[in-house]
Amino acid sequence: MADKLKVGVFKFTSCSGCQMVLVHLEESLLEVLKHVELKYFRMVSDDDLPDEPLDAALVEGAVTNEEEAAMLKKIRRMSRFLVAAGACAATGGINAMKNIIPEGEVESMVYSSPEHIRSGKAFGLNEYVRVDAYLYGCPIDRNELVNTLMSLVLRVPPYIPGLTVCMECKMKGNECVFLTRKEPCLGPVTVGGCGALCPSNNVACEGCRGVLNGTNVSGLVSAWENAGVSPELIRLKLRKYNFLQALGR
Amino acid sequence: MLENPYIPVFAKVVSVRNENSTTKTFTLRMVNGGAMRFRPGQFDIVSCFGVGESAFSICSSPEEKDVFENTVRRVGRVTTALFNTKPGDVLGVRGPYGKPWPLEKAAGNDLILIAGGMGLAPLRPVIHYVARHRDLYGSVDILYGARTPGDMIYTYEFDSWRNIPNTRLYLTVDYVPPDVSWEHDVGVVTELLRYVKPRMRYTTVFICGPEVMMKFASQMLLRIGFYPSEVYLSLERRMKCGVGKCGHCQIGYKYVCKDGPVFNMEEIGLLPDVIE
Amino acid sequence: MSFVIRREEIPHFSRHVISKGYALFAPVKGEYRHVFRRIGENQVEEISLNYVRTTMPPLKTLLIPPRETLFRIKDGRIEETLPDPNSRTAILGVHPCDVNAMNLLERVYMDRPKDPYFEARRKNLLVIALNCKNSDEYCFCTSLGTGPSLEEGFDLLLTDLGDRFLLEVGSKRGAELVGDFYMPQATSVDILEKNDVIREARNSIRRHVNTAGLQRLMTGALYNPVWNELAEKCTGCGACNMVCPTCFCFNVVDEPELDTGGVLRKRTWDGCLLWEYAEVALGGNFRRDLSARIRQFVNHKMNYWLNQYGSLGCVGCGRCIEQCPAGIDITRVVARLRGETP
Q1: Residues C178, A114: Cα–Cα separation, whole Å
Q2: Distance (Å, rounded) from C-alpha A209 to C-alpha A193?
Q3: pTM
């Protein structure tokens, strides 16, 4: 058996939900830990970041200030392979919604004494460092997490099949929430792999897994417009997980 | 029991040879003692279990029965996994698949072999075959181009190829790094055609390389008077099954896995999504 | 050999099929529309044979499941995971277009080398088809000769005559199944009534695709600007690939099986509308533009199939039109290429 994969789990601006997926692997986690050694994982251990190179860093969260950016660069330097885990790390995620509003305004909307807040625009990790692989979703998918870790154990880059949420939704035999109820669903242009979790529960896809390369967001928006979806709803929908970027808006 | 075309047989890595910084040649032997009976131009599909499968040209001599070879450039998951293997490791193999180069049909003719980069791999068995059956063919011209001298593969065999009677090897690169000595051409591979004086109607051309290179080479050949039926190309497409089921390798109504990978220009004709 | 079975006897007949050892699949009313489900002995009353179209093609879904394990590798050994050769499946109430689509899938999967997973399932599948009584705005089977009635390719065939069904036997296996189920023989009146039902169904179909000289037209239109215009609208979602009863492409992935320490090699449905579908090493892609991918989908059905397997690859079920979020209509695409519609 080869040496165990030395992994660090890190978090920036985010809700910790993606780290929780790792914790919640439960029995599978024990199997994974036969191949993986967790060198740093603040959620489960107080151990400090060791001063040794990591085989892989699993990084959750958006980068929203200079301290985070500096720490991310340090993680990058010490890690052979860096995985952006979750929507925030991939694109800024929910946090990036604030990017179009002046910072002071956002802070005073949320905090009673915003003077203690040091936060700027929220970006995905690739704004600052090279990212070797992505785990999509809010939160990430447990099977994809396991597959990714096991690929890294085999010393190969992970693979997330490039299909859409819409295709997975069809494979599950669901009726289309857009065609039956005119709800704007981002499934047609969103990276699959979640098993079409939301539409399977009768909720339109929010696009938390990001835009799939090669799909046509503006075509989908036209389809929504033709179906009478309100411009306001379309704007909110596209803003939530940064789909405006794919439209060049 | 039903014959299952998706199930590989085991093959052991016998040795691994460095071709250049991103390319290695793997010598494999069937674990069950069987042989890979293939014809030049055919491909196999190699499995790294836990990672997946990829298709590679079989690049050894077709007369070598004991072992066979795949030259692999590290570009993705399966190739990375292959690069991680050591002699003695076991892989899965399926094949051989596909239509080979038309070596019987070309018998009696001169041959021009044009290769770019990794495209030399499916032509190496042709060169070995011709060397072994030298009387079957007229003159042989091998035109090989790569990005830099360091990107070339099989360089250790070049002298023996030059020593095959009535055979010439012309080399070219796009770029020579400052500290490298290079006594051959610089420029695109099609420019090497100026060294060749083809006997029209008695010459067959085999081309393999990046699709844009094959496009220019085949267009140039047609312009100087070759018939489309005399110019053969080996195409690369995404493949998942190798047996005409998974759909990925289709170009128009052709399946690269079973109708190709070797096609002549007449067959490719007006097919879309290929040399357009 | 033809029989008559009263409408209220369908549950009883379904129970008879299950009692013969078949896993039975049949349409039931879902929240929005009919869906095919596995029917247990106590669910036979739920079977509802009055439907036009299901969203998913029932036979493709049964014969090539969306995700399927090809084999397991564990401790250096390969374990084939073929379907149980002794399992028997019956599907009740599939329409002619879907049965014809299955016959097309057979040409792909039973072509040598045969696909053993498909073969095992097909061999053990009993098809109780249902001629169409109704159609809707998306149906265009009559243009392709794949409906609304079936002439062959079934074990048993039902036609809805209102208070009763005509039941025709199309195979030895079908004959065996009905051998000990009492039904009166059909009379010439029943047959005449069937013809009326079929004629009415045929006349109700309003959508058409002109297949005359289609291959020549399609090949001549490979560089038509229509493909670029469609690419503006198309979302690239691949829903058409999923719902098409003749789309057969698959991807292959290896997945770790943690509890056994093994690896599963799986295949999953794939689609030519996806970017990744024609991607090769180092970022190369032979259908980079969405226009090329739409062109591939439409041409495969309406052009390439003919060379590959001897008939068009479309059965006119209408699913790709109905399920397209962008409203792209394959029959209209053909009409546009013909210059018949703007």
Answers
A1: 79
A2: 9
A3: 0.95
Query: Across the interface, do A216 and C243 touch by the CB < 8 Å criterion?
Result: no
Does B206 lie in the same domain as B136? yes
- Three-state SS letters, chain B: CCCCCCCCEEEEEEEEEEEECCEEEEEEEECCCCCCCCCCCCEEEEEECCCEEEEEEECCCCCCCCCEEEEEECCCHHHHHHHCCCCCCEEEEEEEECECCCCCCCCCCEEEEEEEHHHHHHHHHHHHHHHHCHHHCCCEEEEEEECCHHHCCCHHHHHHHHCCCCEEEEEEECCCCCCCCCCCEECCHHHHHHHCCCCCCCEEEEEECCHHHHHHHHHHHHHCCCCHHHEEEECCCCCCCCCCCCCCCEECCEECCCCCEEEEHHHHCCCCCCCC
C255/C21 Cα distance (integer angstroms): 33
List of domains in chain A: 5-153 (3.40.50.700), 165-247 (no CATH)
| Contact between B51 and A150 using a beta-carbon 8 Å cutoff | no
Pair (B138, B50) in one structural domain: no
Regarding whether B214 and B164 lie in a shared domain, the answer is: yes
Of the partner residues A28, A176, A215, the one whose CB lies closest to the CB of residue C236: A215
Contact check, Cβ <8 Å, A154/B52 = no
Q: Which residue of C has its CA nearest to B270?
A: C219
**Number of separate domains in chain B:** 2
A3, A156, A160: best mutation site toward chain B, by most B Cβ within 10 Å?
Answer: A156
Nearest CA in chain B to C282: B75
pLDDT given for residue A186 in this prediction: 98
ipTM comes to 0.95
Domain coverage including residue B134? 110-234
| Model confidence pLDDT, tens digit, residues C280-297 | 988 889 999 999 999 999
Dihedral sign computed on CA atoms, order B123, B22, C278, C311: positive
Contacting residues of C for B255, CB less than 8 Å apart: 308
Q: Is residue B242 part of a domain?
A: no
Reported in sequence order, the residue ranges of C17-87 that DSSP labels E, i.e. its strands, are 22-29, 34-39, 67-74, 77-80
Predicted confidence (pLDDT) per residue in C205-260, tens digit: 999 999 999 999 999 999 999 999 999 999 999 999 999 999 999 999 999 998 88
| B211 in the same domain as B127 | yes
Mean pLDDT across B137-163? 97
The answer to whether B247 contacts C249, with C-beta atoms less than 8 Å apart, is: yes
- Inter-chain residue contact A187 with C275, CB threshold 8 Å: no
Query: Would residue B103 count as lying in a domain?
Result: no
